[in-house]
Design brief:
Length: 338
């Protein structure tokens, strides 16, 4: 029997917990890049003819390095970790929900097959899209609050709950917590492409391998995430624009759709601006995805070993209980000797 067949499969919640753990560790490590890419994506270059600022922050960043330098100068090192509590809460809930539902729908698909075969690329993408859509519906409010926190100017920093109240008390009301939901549902293509590509690359490069080495998991995660990020970057930029405060030039009028955000960006900066923040987005995505998959693989092995130990411990206790019951029965019942 192969090693893969000998390992008992993880239940959906075990896979979800392993994925969420990996995501939290990975995002905590690279969180400053998340701040940088968000600040770059919400700023709009100001033209000489503009009468009012076009961005939510008076400071303009020319690059990722320039953004890090100016954030530290203006807000200190803590500025690079603004909104991290909400972000990690969002990462935990989103990834737990995603990995849970991905495991469920993938297991249902495999069990429905007469002859179990790994899903093809199209099916992997479909399964990832379904899981991503379900996860987004439940977790997008945290994403909205985190984006607001990350783009709050110095002197107007607020906590997670206060920022949530600000969103609720705005013109949008409670539905404001689900601002950008349509863009997020379209963006399920990102994790769908990521995890679909990851599974296909794994099947192609490491067929039949039960567990990957850390560097193998990192490589597959990084390659799949880079591809997904490049393909979906305009939607990512539009989603950030929807969830952040509207630029002062719009006089407090929020964007109504991600198409309106994209039109605004193209009008003021040109079509290439739809890819602004791509460098930190890819760098963050590669590091997070690589670390996530590497950690997730290790956590899954850890949970498998833990579950095996618990099963063995349970079986041992059951056997001991059975032996004790047998011994007591022999003492009580009469023994007939021929």
């Amino acid at each position: 029997m192969s090693a893969k067949g000998a390992q008992p499969p993880l239940p959906p919640w075990g896979t979800a917990l392993a994925g969420a753990t990996g995501a939290v560790l990975a995002n905590a490590i690279v969180y400053p890049l998340d701040i940088v890419k968000t600040r770059l994506q919400v700023q709009v270059k100001r033209r000489p003819t503009d009468q009012e600022p076009t961005t939510t922050n008076d400071i303009h960043y020319t690059s990722s390095i320039d953004a890090i330098k100016k954030i530290v100068e203006d807000e200190g090192i803590r500025g690079l970790y603004s909104g991290i509590n909400g972000s990690l809460l969002g990462v935990t809930s989103t990834n737990f929900a995603y990995f849970y539902w991905y495991s469920v729908v993938r297991s249902l698909y495999l069990s429905s097959q007469t002859i179990p075969n790994p899903p093809g690329t199209a099916m992997e993408l479909s399964l990832g899209a379904v899981a991503g859509a379900v996860a987004q519906i439940f977790t997008i409010p945290v994403s909205v609050i985190t984006t607001r926190q990350q783009t709050q100017p110095k002197g107007d920093k607020r906590g997670l709950l206060d920022t949530g109240r600000e969103v609720i008390h705005s013109d949008d009301g409670w539905p404001g917590l689900w601002r950008g939901l349509k863009a997020s549902l379209v963006l399920v293509a990102n994790p769908a492409i990521t995890y679909g590509a990851y599974q296909r690359l794994r099947d192609l490069l490491y067929p039949g391998k039960a567990s990957l080495r850390p560097w193998e998991s990192f490589f597959l995660g990084a390659a799949s995430k880079a591809l997904a990020t490049i393909l979906t970057q305009p939607l990512i930029v539009a989603k950030v624009g929807l969830q952040s405060r509207p630029p002062p030039a719009r006089q407090g009028k929020p964007f109504k759709s991600f198409l309106e955000v994209m039109s605004y960006i193209i009008e003021h900066e040109g079509p290439l601006a739809l890819f602004k923040g791509l460098a930190p987005q890819i760098t963050k995505g590669i590091l997070v995805q690589g670390l996530l998959m590497m950690t997730k693989e290790r956590m899954e092995i850890l949970f498998i070993v833990l579950f095996s130990y618990l099963r063995k411990l349970r079986d041992t206790k059951l056997q001991q209980a059975a032996n004790a019951a047998t011994a007591r029965a022999r003492e009580v019942l009469p023994v007939v000797v021929k």
